[in-house]
Specification:
The radius of gyration is 26 Å and the shape is globular. The chain has about 550 residues and is mostly helical. The model is unreliable at about 1-10 (pLDDT under 50). The chain is built from 27 helices and no strands. It has helices at about 20-30, 35-50, 60-75, 80-105, 110-115, 120-150, 150-180, 185-205, 205-215, 220-235, 240-255, 260-270, 275-290, 290-310, 310-330, 330-345, 345-350, 355-370, 375-390, 400-415, 420-430, 435-450, 455-475, 475-490, 500-515, 520-530, 535-560. Helix 13 runs antiparallel to helix 14.
């Protein structure tokens, strides 16, 4: 899907013939260059001048709403920004709806009104399409805003309306293509982004809920999502960079296409190398590659920017990210300090995102770093923290929250972590951080504990899985397969950590695909289908899809 950049061209660029105002691109450039307040002031000035001339702009009003949306997300406690955002979205909706009514080719009673506009049917269709797309983006933003404020029912209703608007825009665009009317790549790119993100998001819905979402009118086409997002990325529209970031994560870590991912990343960096958005994303990229030191440095740069600008929500997020990287590197003292700063941030600023998971890991860090006073720490700090997290912060739809709750409840039964619980928690993070060398002593400790005690079979499966994963990291695939097979031998005996068998099957399928043994890879994935209602099901399901796509493309290349 990747298109080569023309010499001197930018990822995001405006075409004079586009219905999208050039000022919207200028505002986006300011936001992505860390001058959010400058973008706000710029658009306010443009709209003020238009108003003096008796004019209005739906797209520029939406653009200002988008900037305020950024600021409101960085200042969740600012009620003034909330009111301003809602007012701008109201104005955008009204302007877009008025334009859509005015140029809607299906409305016959509006003919008298439309008759005042002596323009061609092609131009009317173009303006109607523009208004529909603007309305769709406004609805999406309002839906995300309501999710942010935990008004889920209102958000779901608005998501449905926005999906219908994007679907309508797609049909209008198809009719324009059939008539060979002039194309606007930027407007088309925005449609691609909206449709692609909807397909992607709803493809992540657990299988048990996919029937309900389809009945509600939402489509889930993962392959279609990639195609749409690549077309947006190549369009030059204002959503090209966000589409690129989504594709970067998909290609690099799900589809494991390093070359394609590196091209996307270099292209984004060429235009936005100093952006705090890119810096934050860079931290995630480095963390997922196992470069924890580099990831921490990237997050620290973003943290300094957030402190300088007074963006407390972003500052809290960087504390969480730095803490998590430290935990993945077995530096629990540093991890504890940053998790504490994250938890200490008022919930109205940092909201509930990551909070139960951070609470669980903060309690674990207390336990690990203060071995001589564990009982006091358990009673005075860990237990009160866990009770609060379970009572106030859990979101039933979030896998991390549910997993954290189970672990915290286990702790509260005895006010302690068992040696097995402690070492497996540490191992899980080290494997996630690709720190196989640091994981080795902990694997030995776990194996010794299993030999010394009558432990649940869960822990035998976990030892085999984490050992196999470390061998994968070290590229010893033959030995990895042998050990992962030992995890599968515990199938039916695992009682609580039911995720470990599907995870082992996925890992074996991934190794088989790496060795181009497509038949064996499919066999493992077929076996995986019989498991449901386990921790991380949503994530594993998407990884299975990614692996299937990788196999399909590899086989097609072999055939050529």
């Amino acid at each position: 899907f990747l298109l080569p950049m023309q010499e001197g061209s930018k990822l995001t660029h405006h075409r004079d013939a586009s219905v999208i105002p050039a000022e919207l691109y200028q505002a986006h450039s300011l936001v992505w260059s860390n001058d959010i307040y400058g973008a706000k002031k710029f658009l306010e000035g443009i709209l003020e001048n238009l108003e003096k001339e008796g004019k209005k702009s739906a797209w520029l009003t939406y653009g200002l709403a988008e900037v305020v949306f950024w600021l409101q997300g960085l200042h969740l406690q600012d009620k003034g920004l909330r009111k301003e955002l809602e007012k701008l979205l109201d104005d955008t909706d009204k302007l877009a709806e008025d334009l859509a009514d005015r140029f809607n080719p299906e409305v016959t009673l509006g003919g008298l009104f439309r008759g005042k506009d002596k323009i061609s049917e092609e131009e009317k269709s173009y303006r109607y399409l523009s208004a529909t797309v603007c309305s769709a983006f406004s609805l999406v933003m309002r839906a995300v805003f309501y999710f942010r404020t935990e008004e889920q029912l209102r958000a779901v209703f608005l998501f449905r309306r926005s999906w219908l608007a994007f679907s309508k825009a797609t049909k209008v665009q198809q009719k324009r293509d059939e008539k060979k009317w002039q194309d606007d790549p930027e407007l088309r790119g925005l449609i691609n982004f909206g449709v692609g993100m909807f397909h992607l998001i709803f493809s992540l819905v657990p299988p048990s809920l996919q029937l309900l979402t389809s009945i509600a009118g939402f489509e889930a086409d993962r392959k279609g999502a990639l195609k749409e997002l690549y077309e947006c990325y190549n369009s030059g529209c204002t959503m090209a960079a966000p589409a690129g970031l989504v594709l970067l994560m998909l290609e690099k870590f799900l589809f494991k296409k390093k070359e394609e991912a590196d091209v996307i990343w270099e292209r984004i960096l060429a235009e936005y190398s100093k952006s705090f958005i890119i810096g934050y994303m860079g931290g995630f990229v480095l963390k997922l590659e196992g470069d924890l030191e580099g990831a921490i440095k990237a997050f620290e740069i973003t943290q300094r920017f957030s402190v300088d600008e007074g963006f407390r929500q972003l500052e809290a997020s960087t504390h969480y990210s730095i803490a998590y990287c430290n935990a993945c590197g077995d530096d629990w003292e540093s991890s504890k300090n940053h998790f504490q700063l994250f938890i200490d941030t008022p919930i109205e600023i940092a909201n509930k995102n990551f909070r139960p998971w951070a609470a669980y890991l903060l309690g674990l860090s207390y336990w690990i770093t203060q071995p001589d006073s564990r009982q006091t720490i358990a009673n005075d700090k860990i237990a009160p923290l866990y009770r609060k997290a379970i009572k106030e912060w859990i979101r039933e739809e979030e896998g991390f929250d549910i997993f954290a709750r189970r672990k915290m409840k286990n702790f509260l039964k005895s006010d302690s972590f068992s040696p097995l619980e402690e070492v497996t928690a540490i191992l899980g993070l080290l494997v996630e951080g690709k720190q196989s060398e640091k994981a080795r002593p902990h694997l030995d400790k776990l194996r010794n504990l299993l030999e010394e005690t009558e432990a649940e079979r869960d822990y035998h499966a976990i030892w085999a899985f984490y050992t196999g994963e470390c061998l994968k990291i070290e590229k010893d695939l033959v030995k990895a397969v042998e050990i992962l097979q030992r995890a599968l031998e515990e199938d039916g005996k695992v009682k609580q950590e039911t995720w470990v068998i599907p995870a082992a099957l996925l890992s074996l399928a991934d190794i088989a695909a790496t060795e181009k043994d497509w038949t064996k890879a499919k066999e493992y994935m077929k076996k995986l289908k019989k498991y449901s209602k386990y921790d991380w099901e949503k994530i594993i399901a998407f990884q299975v899809f990614a692996l299937k796509q990788t196999i399909k493309e590899a086989k097609a290349q072999e055939a050529v």
